[in-house]
From TrEMBL:
Keywords: Mitochondrion
Gene: STOML2
Subcellular location: Mitochondrion inner membrane
Protein name, per record: Stomatin-like protein 2, mitochondrial
Region of interest (Disordered), residue spans: 323-356
Organism of origin: Carlito syrichta (Philippine tarsier)
Location of the Band domain: 36-194
Amino acid sequence: MLARSARGTGTLLLRGCLQASGRAPRRASSGLPRNTVVLFVPQQEAWVVERMGRFHRILEPGLNILIPVLDRIRYVQSLKEIVINVPEQSAVTLDNVTLQIDGVLYLRIMDPYKASYGVEDPEYAVTQLAQTTMRSELGKLSLDKVFRERESLNASIVDAINQAADCWGIRCLRYEIKDIHVPPRVKESMQMQVEAERRKRATVLESEGTRESAINVAEGKKQAQILASEADKAEQINQAAGEASAVLAKAKAKAEAIQILAAALTQHNGDAAASLTVAEQYVSAFSKLAKDSNTILLPSNPGDVTSMVAQAMGVYGALTKGPVPASQDSVSSRSSRDVQGTDASLDEELDRVKLS
């Protein structure tokens, strides 16, 4: 607690002048303690003693002894943390907006001697210093930065107060802004700005959602096409592999059939079996004539199965280059004549077709 001595009528007149000027009176204990020779000083208090009007010493907490009449307790200072409400005041920001702002100041007396003799009213002095510093710092910031940089603003005010109040023996611990009142029209403009910003963010988010949706759809179509092409590729590969396997199987089966046929031809009466097979195939092919098309070419004697069999056997013998049996000489000569006659008849038929 801060205190000052009372000196009769002069003290009362000074207090009345302070109240008339709007200054808050200093914090004081319930009257200054009297010199009773033996004094007990409470903890966290400092009693300033004057001897014959001059500073003598500061009483420490505990038992203290003073000389009557000569020693007098002039000031009682509290060493506890003091909380001071800074009154509301107007301040103009960098962008010419008038604000009503108040705060709370936390301070502590570090040197009772300087707090007693360095300034008349420490509390009032610190309060005025806080107000002027706050107006000065607000004039450096725009309205938007005032709300965003409250912590830096508080720190700047504390540094300015500590630099000025060092000679007063007072240390400012912290300063907090309580309320910031904005003019009604400026408040309406700020609300409109906030609503516009929200609508902007909503529009941006909606457009981003549409873009993401389109990207996802395109990506899905791309993946679908890739998968479909891979499926077609796999299908074609499988189909080609199946066809190749089928061709190999057919070729293998045909090779085995040829081997079996060759083995059968080498056996007894193999030529007769081959002639019988050719005759059966000729009859089967002759029965299918004129079924698929109405234009056909026929030999001169299509009903002569023997000549056709002999001709087929002659081709087979020429391919195998094997010896022709003597019993088949007449058949071979007759087959050659039949072939020649067939060629002649075919030539005549072609000439007739050309003439028509």
